[in-house]
Specification:
6% helix, single chain, twelve-stranded antiparallel barrel, 12 strands, globular, mainly beta, 203 residues, 1 helix
């Protein structure tokens, strides 16, 4: 599905140093079922970001840390508002400053994949950014500022890994892997697109 992308005006920059110069595509690879190990790479395969999380059950907030791959710099944490019935999420800098808040539009309907986010920009503004799916299964999802579509997320596939136990002769499903392709317009902050992608994974 072809989606027309445009540069956001004015810019919506959550962090400096990550704004795309031209329209570009990158891929997101989730290596497990609980999104503890996620990598984002550009079209040439160069790592951009990685997401790391604690073992399942060790964090009530499902905290995930996002790192810049080239410098190994901790960019921000992505965590759930514990016991929040609205399923809210927060993006925080390493020093605890709120960079973005996200909430799912609905918890029980097909709009569960729709996300409203408030981005705290470097210019000191708070900008509403929304994610909306283009089809029933959310195979294509757009990120929009007002009437401007700045990015599109395409679900590629899921791969279930099957392990064979020679002692029992049984095959058992282990961790699965998931892949997405993200197209972004020029002038888009890749750090906040990555934070939106994180909330999308936890939908």
């Amino acid at each position: 599905m072809d989606v027309l992308l445009q540069t956001p005006m004015p810019p919506v920059n959550m962090l400096s140093g990550f704004v795309s110069e031209n329209e570009m595509t990158f891929t997101v690879h989730c290596h497990d079922d609980y999104f503890r190990n996620v990598t984002a790479s550009d079209s040439a395969g160069k790592p951009l970001f990685r997401v790391e999380g604690a073992k399942f059950g060790t964090s009530w907030s499902w905290r995930r840390r996002v790192w810049e791959s080239s410098s190994d710099r901790h960019l921000f944490d992505f965590r759930h508002n514990s016991f929040d019935i609205k399923n809210g999420w927060v993006v925080e800098s390493p020093d605890g400053r709120k960079l973005c808040s996200l909430v799912h539009k609905s918890q029980v309907t097909r709009d569960h994949s729709c996300i409203n986010a408030t981005v705290c920009t470097e210019a000191g503004e708070q900008v509403l950014v929304v994610m909306r799916h283009k089809d029933h299964e959310a195979l294509v999802t757009t990120i929009n500022v007002g009437d401007t579509t700045i990015a599109a997320i395409y679900k590629i596939n899921n791969i279930s890994n099957i392990k064979y136990n020679p002692a029992t002769g049984l095959r058992k499903r282990s961790e699965s892997e998931s892949f997405w392709e993200i197209r972004v317009a020029s002038g888009v902050d890749l750090s906040f697109v990555s934070s939106h992608m994180a909330s999308f994974l936890f939908r």
